Each structure stands twice: as C-alpha cells, then as structure tokens.
Amino acid sequence: MTNHWTFVSEDAGTISLHDHRISRVEEAGANLIFAFESGFDVTKDNSLNPTGRHRNTDPAAIILEGWQFIEGAFNRSVEVHYPDGTRRRLPEKPLSKELFLSGAFEVEVLDFDWTPETGAFHLDGDGGIYYDEPDTPDGPVGFVTLDLYVERLLFCWNDLPRDAWFQDWPRQ
Fold first, then answer.
1. What's the whole-number mean pLDDT along residues 116-132?
2. Cα(160)–Cα(111) distance, rounded to whole angstroms?
3. Does some domain include residue 170?
4. Where in the sequence is the domain holding 153, given as residue range(s)?
C-alpha cells in the first residue's frame, strides 16, 4: 500500500493539513486512505524535508492503518451570524460510516489531532456532504467533526515542489 510513495512519515507534528482538501476517502482492507489531490504541507522540521523550508507536496495521501469509525457529525456547535445581528445555531446532523464512505465525502481540513497512545484521531473540516439547508451568510453549511480509532498514521508523498502557504507568514 505504501510502495508507490517516495516519502512516508509518521511524524504528525510536522504535517499541516490546514486549508487542504481531502479529495477522496477509500477503504482498503483494514486501512483507510485520505487522498489529497493538491497535497498537504510538510514543515521544515520533518526529517524527510531536506529543503529547510515549509513545503507543499504534490498529490499525497494519509493512510490510517487499523482504523475504526467512532462518530461523525455535521454542524456540531455551529452558530451562524447573520448581517442583521441575529444568530442561529445550526441543527446537528449525524455523519454515518456509510455516508462517510459513500464517495461523496470531500472536506477542507481545518484541524486534526492524533494521539498514538490511545489511537484517537479527530478531524474538523469544512465542506463535506451538504444537506438540504441553504447556504448561510457565513458560507455553505457543512462543518464536519469526525472521530476515528487509528492504530498507525502514515503521511505519504513523492515530492515537495512548492512553498507551503504559511512559509513566509506573516507577510513582511
């Protein structure tokens, strides 16, 4: 499964998924693959990044070995602020394992966390699968919270062709 990748890292602390889109989710036996068609960011602290700069990968993937679906939800604790000053809490909707694996799941990652000692993997994202609610003044409905159990997490890529979006942040 990892043999077509040049680089495979287990150092989650040196990978930034923020603002990168999971373009496909695929189950492969006991493993789950998150494909990132536009890549993700590898910080200069990753031992497999010899550039000395934070870099963006070419197409990449995360392999979640020995995974189990625990729970998912749309719009958990999401409050929308309307231009007239009113606020409305969006109704939380469940994200089932079947819907998650349906092939329609695409999400822009806002944050993720993995605790190897417990296997707890948590992801917050925006986008996902949209329900029938209209877009809000804050943007489209579809904030996603996902909790999985993962035995091992592998970050895979072949090249680091571009600077990461946050390389020279903040701009001088």
1. 82
2. 21
3. no
4. 7-163
